[in-house]
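Quarterly update from the structural biology core.
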Amino acid sequence: MNRKIVAIFLTSKPNYDEFAFKYFILSLNKIQSYYEFMFPEIHNHCYISRYSDTNELFSSFEKKVRPKINFENKPDYLINIITSTIGENLFFECRGNVAFVTTDTWGKYFSPPSLFEYLSHCIIASLLSMNEKVDLHSHRDTKGCCLDYTFFKMDDKVDIALGYICDKCKDEIINGIGKEYLTEIINIINREWIGDINNFGSVAYTLKNFFKFDIDKDSGFNKTFWDKAKDYFYEIPKEIIVLIIAAIIGILIWRN
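Predicted structure, tokenized:
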């Protein structure tokens, strides 16, 4: 089976570590066989405003972004990650085979889960909504399902934590695409593939050791100077910390 190609565009300047995010998303290529995720080369950040009208987002993509990109392989789905508010404070929106997902407000109001877990959740939800073999749309009732509309935004924390697809959506997926696809999607949204930061070779371990991102405690957004300083402090051996504290106490005693 030829995989469906999913092109992910960072069309706003990332307010997160884009290389850690790329590693996180591209790890999905190893755990399922339906989609191949990729990041096209793009040099311009087209969406920089704090608010984006939904209609304008999609029309500007066709005018400003799509014509500038040369694809070796034509993607089946095109997903934009932006930082501005989408329409009526949406997490994501899809039209045809194009989707927009925003990072706006997640770190301030909803993390944990981390930004990366939230973005992967929205990416999968948008792919389910855009799949032409099924008639899936966000539903208003909150069931803990990946496709909950989440009018109350805090409900999205529940959905991500559960990694669940409701029975109605399951039946639609099985009848339209098949059980194997459903299994692969559930394997993504349950987040077990991320692994543990102490398990060598896991996604979580590599994020921490290669990209200095601890998915157990970091939001995923760019760190402040003090956040980086605290990370460095925790990496100092305890013996050195004890010596530093003893030296400080000694100086204070000597000065008094």
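The longest strand covers residues 4-9.
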